[in-house]
Amino acid sequence: MRTAIIEGDGIGKEVIPEAVAILDYFNETYDWGIEKVPVEVGFGKWERTGSAITDEDIAVLKSCNSILFGAITTVIDPSYKSVLLRIRKELDLYANIRPILPIPGIYKLLKIKDRKESDVNMIIVRENSEGLYSGIEEIGDEKSTTTRVITKKASVRIAAFASNLAAGAERKNSLTVVHKSNVLKSDKLFLDSCKQTAESKGVNVSDKLVDIFAYDMIMTPEKYDVVVTTNLFGDILSDLGAVLLGSIGLAPSANFGDNQAFFEPVHGSAPDIAGKGIANPMAAILSLKMMFEWMGKKREACLVNRAVSAAIHDKIVTPDLGGKYSTKEVGDFILSKVRQLDAASFCLEDPEDMSKLKP
To answer: How far apart are CA 227 and CA 206, in angstroms?
Structure first.
């Protein structure tokens, strides 16, 4: 098993080491045999070499089973091409998954009283290969255009992925297709393909216009289970979903292809706080938890989830959550809690049931 480690830019260099420390603990303790493969890509590399990611980097990533990724700074420069878009395209990572599931204890910590954590358990599935991120653009001084690509093949593929999630034992067999087909006629193909695919799999399917859904997901999140949508809508809605988590510093994500998986915190490189040691490492650590789940290591994922919840409960948090602790102090606490819980054989009874974890 080969795992690429990409810190990237900005706070990626601060939060990924905290997740890697937990990976190292399990890898060494249980002799998993994971080979870590460091890869440098991003704005820093572009400034130094003129290339943010090379063909050689892509070849290394293709040789890995999974990727743990920090953050990338993307600048407005015609010669700077999106690192993330290239990786997704080259590795065909067509499904972007962002769980909207609050960590136990976070609403109490943040004094959120107008909703309950138990009301929020949603997965946003974003088609990751086309839409407005097709990369087909014409840029001019008087007119610029971006081609929005929707194909039946990609729509059916992402709908099948989302339907399989919705039909899982821990879900409600409910899929919501989010679109704007009343204005964007290309969305009719996406909507029809998704509904037909879900129905063929026996999944209960409904749809919502994106603007209505954006309001509804914040006001009544309990109505939704698995949500599938196009590339740009999914990008925006999943960032909005961080409101339900309490901070974008708590938002993990995964990108899946048929052969590889890519895990990253949602928060970006945050250059305004980079180097200050105050970035929240929890999203990176929760992204590692998602990687453990993908690897079939349910117990270890459970331990990580429980350790993060313990940090929330004990108020060992960074300033974005009202705390006074540094990135490293929070990461060290979570690692120590993982070790403690592991030694005490926590999460052995029912490792797949993480919904009942309490601080």
So the answer is: 10
Report helix, strand or coil for 117: helix
Tell me the pLDDT of the chain (359 aa) as tens digits: 999 999 999 999 999 999 999 999 999 999 999 999 999 999 999 999 989 999 999 999 999 999 999 999 988 777 777 899 899 999 999 999 999 999 999 999 999 988 899 999 999 999 999 999 888 889 899 999 999 999 999 999 999 999 999 999 889 999 999 999 999 999 999 999 999 999 999 999 999 999 999 999 999 999 999 999 999 999 999 999 999 999 999 999 999 999 899 999 999 999 999 999 999 999 999 999 999 999 999 999 999 999 999 999 999 999 999 999 999 999 999 999 999 999 988 776 444 444 443 33
Superfamily (CATH H level) for 1-93+262-359? Isopropylmalate Dehydrogenase (3.40.718.10)
Residue 175 tokens, joined: 């899929």
Report residue 183 CA to chain centroid gap.
29
* Closest residue by Cα to residue 285 from 251, 239, 325, 314: 251
Contact 334, 307 (CB under 8 A): yes
- Which tokens go with 90? 């080259």
CATH 3.40.718.10 residue ranges in the chain?
1-93+262-359, 113-245
pTM > 0.90: yes or no: yes
Q: How far apart are the first and last CA of the chain?
A: 33
